[in-house]
Design goal:
The chain is 75% helix and 2% strand. By secondary structure, it is mainly alpha-helical.
Length: 391
């Protein structure tokens, strides 16, 4: 199985239920002498079961199995994208992580009261409304740092967790309204709940798009990393930095204009022509890209970036033999090992040589520092191994 982490979710769900049962037992020792509450369990679905301390709960186990089956089938048979999987894992993991953290806090609190009964005196009654608000405020304490992380280091996992917390806080609001009014929800309330769910869905989609865009920019940022050929004109290093920044911002046309300025100032700049080729490649102009890469080879026959570019063009044309030749030339010139091993792995896959493809996927994973690239390479290794032997 490629993603065993999906089995973390049922572990968290079962832990949540039985920690709640344990807390229900522990609170009876001293907590109930000082604090009177209507319901210890805030979720109305499980209040009766927790009050009765049911160790075996078929409804809960059915829910756990259903969630696990949906995630397992989505990963194994539904070809669920990694970003979507990370989003849903973040959503469920952060929700249950926050809830389990609260259970541990309660257990420590109950243990303190049991060991030091003089720490609290008297008796107070806490309304169910207050308990719901306290729970919501505790979730807010978790949501704030995660929101800060989402701003400065966005990822599908973080956005999923943030959306999950927002959804749970919204459910708390619904519980508070229902407990206060003592009546079933009206059409207006149902509409508000539906709109809230739609907003959460939009946030999830936005998070997926944003995170995939961030990942794409990180990968693109690595592509021009070989453009470090020293030039004579003092303006050229600054222009290279500007061009790479525009590529990272996906302003390909703007980057192309800067690379054109570079080759105007340095007509024999191999790195400048490779940059132009890369821009044309991103714009799906394979003939134009090839022309610039070959012009770079004319200026500097041992410039490895030219071979990497030509290999990428050959892969796009499904010309795997030519791609293998170019990437091998780049590897012989000690080019970027991740790009060359990655290209060779794809070329050998296209040629049907899974043995050599496996070798280069493993090399790409060993050389890469980007977690996404490492994971993708390892996924390809697992898939090829499961496919069976080849030539």
């Amino acid at each position: 199985m490629e993603h065993p982490e999906v089995f973390l979710i049922p572990v968290l769900m079962i832990s949540d239920y039985y920690l709640t049962i344990l807390c229900a037992f522990q609170k009876e020792k001293k907590y109930d002498e000082h604090f009177r509450i209507q319901h210890f369990e805030l979720n109305c679905l499980w209040q009766k079961d927790i009050a009765r301390k049911r160790l075996f709960n078929p409804r809960h186990l059915t829910l756990v199995l259903l969630v696990t089956a949906v995630m397992f089938c989505g990963v194994e048979y539904g070809d669920l994208p990694d970003s979507s999987l990370e989003m849903f894992l973040g959503l469920l993991t952060v929700i249950y992580g926050a809830i389990i953290g609260r259970h541990l806090l309660n257990l420590l609190y109950f243990r303190r009261l049991t060991r030091h009964p003089d720490d609290v005196s008297g008796q107070v009654t806490l309304s169910h409304q207050l308990m719901l608000r306290i729970s919501c405020y505790q979730l807010l304490m978790v949501a704030l740092p995660i929101a800060i992380i989402a701003v400065f280091s966005p990822s599908p996992f973080v956005f999923g967790g943030l959306c999950g917390l927002a959804a749970v806080m919204g459910v708390h609001g619904f519980w508070m309204w229902r407990h206060k009014t003592k009546r079933k929800p009206s059409r207006k309330v149902i509409l508000v709940v539906i709109l809230g769910l739609i907003l959460v869905y939009v946030a999830v989609v936005f998070g997926l798009v944003l995170c995939s865009d961030v990942a794409r920019r990180q990968e693109i940022a690595a592509l021009p990393a070989f453009l470090h050929y020293e030039e004579k004109n003092s303006r050229v290093p600054e222009l290279f930095g500007k061009a790479r920044a525009r590529v990272q911002d996906w302003d390909i046309e703007g980057a192309e204009a800067v690379y054109q300025e570079i080759v105007r100032l340095e007509p024999n700049s191999a790195a400048g022509y490779v940059g132009l080729g890369t821009c044309r490649f991103f714009q799906k102009d394979l003939d134009g890209a090839e022309s610039h890469y070959r012009r770079a080879l004319e200026s500097h026959p041992r410039f490895a970036g030219s071979y990497i570019g030509l290999g990428a063009v050959a892969l796009e044309r499904n010309d795997y033999e030519t791609a293998e030749e170019h990437y091998q030339n780049a590897l012989d010139l000690d080019a970027d090992p991740v790009a060359t091993h990655w290209g060779l792995a794809l070329a050998y896959e296209g040629l049907g040589n899974d043995t050599k493809a496996l070798e280069h996927w493993r090399s790409a994973a060993r050389c890469a520092s980007n977690a996404r690239i490492v994971r993708t390479a390892n996924d390809r290794v697992a898939e090829l191994q499961n496919r069976g032997p080849s030539k």
